[in-house]
Specification:
Number of domains: 1
Shape: globular
Oligomer: single chain
Radius of gyration: 24 Å
Mean pLDDT: 82
Largest sheet: 5 strands, mixed
Distance between the termini: 39 Å
Order of helices and strands: HEHEEEEEHHHHHHHEEEEEEHEH
Length: about 325
């Protein structure tokens, strides 16, 4: 049984999805971009992929280091979630653990890993073009540069080791992209980027916004969203994250005028939204979704919104983080 749990890995934590279930039930509504009807599903069975964070190490063994590290981050963040839901003030450790959780929710998703892999494939193709002139077998396709002496052009292979040439050929031209882009490549960024991003979240200004009686927050398979699409160091950046159907997180470098001044339950750092603000944050969440939106409500309006943004895609650049 333990082995099965290790194989089926949630890219969105179960305890997090539980916060978006139908009241007094264990299920939620899943809206899929491109589909015309939502479906009902149990939170514990959603947002899961087999061996999503596992890879085979150099000893030929299954490595679950990333899965274990993410589980540790979740474990430390769970009590912080409870404090936020109780409108409590967070201490320094709480901010550290919640910052790590937020950054992990950016880097652990399918979208982030697809983004990393896509850029790696582009790098591979670029290297292929750079290497081609060095391969003797492809020499007929290249013309001697005008400013290169004839003697140098004719002798250029003398200093290029035969074994190295064969290795380059084998690696770049006998392997397809899927074989070259191994899981561990994108997985290393899950933790490397998590630590870097967390340090920035920690020093941001945090606001927790409460939903209304009539309008609740939704989440997605890519829940941490950069509203303006600018780098985290940009003074105008707005990072949004639905905490539960009742609460929403907004991280900024400066005070945001859109926020209602009324404190939720008269608590510091907690604000009460109106229906329009909830709708706008939900719109941002739907736009950022790669494929799935999760909600506690079966809503025709939400279904229309998901389909309106069915071709939208998250935008992120590692260099801008």
């Amino acid at each position: 049984m333990a082995k099965n749990k290790k194989e089926h890995q949630h890219y969105i934590p179960r305890f997090y999805l539980k916060g978006f279930t139908v009241p007094n039930h264990e299920y939620l509504w899943i809206y899929e971009k491109g589909k015309t009807e939502p479906r009902k599903g149990y939170y514990s069975n959603e947002a899961v992929r087999k061996n999503f964070y596992s890879f085979t190490n150099i000893n030929g063994e299954k490595d679950v280091t990333i899965e274990d590290a993410l589980a540790e981050i979740e474990g430390k963040a769970a009590p912080v979630f409870q404090k936020i839901k109780n409108y409590e003030k967070l201490n320094e450790d709480d901010r550290i653990n919640f910052s790590l959780y937020l950054s992990a929710m950016l880097t652990r998703t399918p979208y982030f890993r697809e983004y990393v892999n896509s850029n790696y494939k582009k790098s591979i193709n670029k290297n292929r073009e750079l290497i081609k002139p060095l391969i003797k077998n492809d020499e007929k396709n290249y013309v001697k540069p005008i400013d290169m002496p004839e003697e140098l052009w004719n002798s250029r292979w003398n200093s290029f080791p035969k074994k190295m040439e064969e290795k380059l050929l084998d690696y770049y031209f006998k392997n397809n992209d899927e074989k070259m882009v191994k899981p561990e490549f994108s997985l290393q960024y899950v933790l490397l980027q998590t630590s870097e991003i967390a340090s920035r979240f920690y020093v941001m200004k945090w606001k927790f916004i409460a939903a209304t009686v009539n309008w609740k927050f939704v989440t997605s398979d890519n829940p941490l969203y950069n509203i303006l699409g600018v780098g985290l160091s940009n003074p105008n950046v707005e990072m949004s994250f639905p905490i539960s159907k009742e609460l929403f997180f907004l991280g900024t470098w400066q005070d945001n005028e859109i926020m209602i001044k009324t404190k939720a339950q008269d608590k510091e750092g907690y604000f009460q939204a109106d229906n329009n603000i909830v709708k706008e944050f939900n719109r941002a969440t739907v736009k950022s979704a790669l494929k799935y939106v999760f909600s506690s409500n079966n809503s025709d309006g939400l279904m229309r919104l998901v389909q309106k943004y069915k071709d939208s895609a998250p935008k992120i650049q590692i260099t801008q983080l």
